[in-house]
Design goal:
The protein starts with a helix and ends in a 6-residue tail after the last strand. By secondary structure, the chain is of the alpha+beta class. The chain has nine helices and seven strands, in the order αααααβαββαββααββ. The protein has a five-stranded mixed β-sheet with strand order 2-4-5-7-6. The structure holds adenosine-5'-diphosphate (ADP) and magnesium ion (MG).
Length: 387
Amino acid sequence: MIDYVRHHLSAKLLLSYCAIIVAGVFVLLLASQAILPATFNHHMSGMGMTPALAPGASVNNGMMGNANSTDMSQLYLDFRASFNEALLYAALAAMIVAVILSFYLSRSVVAPVRAMSLATQRMTEGHYEEHVQVRGEDELAQLAMHFNEMAEKLNQVEVRRHQLIGDVSHELRTPLTAIKGSMEGLIDGVLPSTQETFQQIQGEAERLNRLVDDLQELSRVEAHAYQLAIRPLDVSSLIQTVTKRLSHQAELKGISFQLDLAPNLPRILADEDRTIQVLTNLIGNALQYTPEKGKIIISARRVNERVQFSIQDTGIGIPRDHLSYIFDRFYRVDKSRSRQAGGGSGIGLTIAHALVEAQGGRIWAESAGEGQGSTFYFILPASNEKI
Ligand SMILES: Nc1ncnc2c1ncn2[C@@H]1O[C@H](COP(=O)(O)OP(=O)(O)O)[C@@H](O)[C@H]1O
Ligand SMILES: [Mg+2]
């Protein structure tokens, strides 16, 4: 019995209700016994009769005499006995109704808790689509609502995990199939063992390597497994560092960089390496997706308490219906074209997005459409020091 109560909230609730009922009835009995003589006497004298010799009642009425007083005492005793009997039956009836009511009440309070407990168990077994019904607006309903939100988030994480495994396997398979095919060709003598064949194989191996590096970086960035060293940084020197690094690549394609920095630009509050990484990603993409002899304009201007960077190119552009997806992992507008254009895995923008957001900024892209060039924007907090 004690063990049952210890393990069941409904039994605990029922017991506490019962304790309250018993206490209530007990007080009712005690109070009625204490008040009864006085109220009896009060009513009797109200009717013009001699008050009975009820305990505590002082009686001194010479006119009515002793015989009358004895009758009244007997009347009082009879009245008290019948009153107590009635009270006892009434208390019993009230107790039975109260116990039945509290049984159902405690069950209704415990029902949502039990539903959540069952749902949690199912989730532990891997059924993340579990939900509980939300009834009413009280604390239990709020708990159920938060539980459902948590279940939804876990479900999303699970779906994303499945997607990621599927995507990663798919991405790994492409270069692996190419390497395997070339090796088989070489062994069977179908492919000539020339420098070109080996370079092709090496190219695919490098692609694999890059993909694994990107994935590692993405997992680090998304798990926030890195320290941000936020400090005031000079915008112009950041941009120059990146354009200098990419100048050789730009020269090879005959693409020119144009810098357009607003005067009196404040410094930004950001992590130097991470901001360079974002700029390298965006300017690298602009170089990758802009045909020869194109132009890339890199600008920065102050917008309220922030600095807005933009990287505008005269490249292949991005169709409108793809714009909202390009920051998703592995998303490429044209997979085969992206492979030929330099073999991106579609993770670069995902990393840039995560890095900008981690530094309290925002990143987005605009493009008038295919062949119309694209502009990538990102904003970062400005340092409020005087420069
Ligand atoms: N400057 C750009 N011009 C046109 N398309 C772009 C540009 N930058 C990114 N994209 C599109 O967004 C996709 C995702 O970019 P990213 O994440 O850097 O992957 P990738 O590894 O393919 O470069 C690219 O495959 C490309 O389709
Ligand atoms: Mg890229």
